[in-house]
Q: What sequence folds into this?
DNA sequence: CGGGAGATGGGCT
DNA sequence: GCCCATCTCCCGA
């Protein structure tokens, strides 16, 4: 069952946790890929690491739009990362999808990342999963409620299956406990 | 295995 | 000019 607007309409931290165990799907021209979301990070409007914390610009515009839309950004001159916009229109917050466990379209994912031998290395990082799922920057701003990008409901996780830590790869606001992953899952980006 | 350097270009001070 | 929500390769253990 595809997630609709009511799922995204909660606090960003809550949505980041609720995404764990759901399924991210991309129906691309080359075929369908799907993976179970196992790791997320929350980015809040008053948080220095958040792209939207210094106000709206051309780049972060979609973060200020309604929740349930894709915010894709370009980083380090060669990679893209995928977020789901959260919080009401006018408030710039989002959830970064950091890792998925490949479920469907694995051959296509391997084809897109030919140098990767292990299934565990295929989607265990925000830029890796964007590459493996073939998510183009042209999908920046699209809704998860319709179109080729969607999130499907998964099994409900118990509270004690969710681990909370500090976020990866940031220097600003590095101490905030805003990273979430499924306990003992071997497809996360980093312990 | 784990750590460090290099790739590579948009965005913002 | 410097920073950056990253990844891969290569080296040493």
A:
């Amino acid at each position: 069952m595809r997630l609709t607007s009511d799922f995204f309409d909660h606090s960003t931290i809550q949505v980041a946790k609720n995404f764990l165990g759901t399924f991210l799907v991309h129906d691309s021209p080359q075929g369908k890929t799907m993976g179970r979301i196992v790791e997320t990070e929350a980015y809040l409007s008053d948080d220095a690491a958040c792209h939207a914390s210094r106000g709206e610009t051309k780049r972060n515009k979609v973060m200020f739009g309604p929740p349930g839309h894709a915010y894709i950004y370009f980083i380090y001159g060669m990679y893209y990362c995928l977020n789901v916009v959260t919080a009401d229109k006018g408030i710039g917050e989002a959830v970064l999808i950091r890792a998925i466990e490949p479920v469907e379209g694995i051959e296509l994912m391997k084809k897109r990342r030919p140098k990767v031998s292990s299934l565990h290395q295929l989607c265990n990082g925000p830029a890796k999963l964007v590459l493996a799922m073939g998510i183009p920057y042209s999908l920046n701003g699209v809704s998860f409620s319709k179109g080729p990008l969607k999130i499907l409901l998964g099994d409900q996780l118990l509270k004690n299956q969710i681990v909370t830590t500090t976020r990866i790869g940031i220097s600003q606001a590095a101490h905030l406990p805003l990273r979430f992953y499924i306990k003992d899952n071997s497809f996360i980006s980093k312990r």
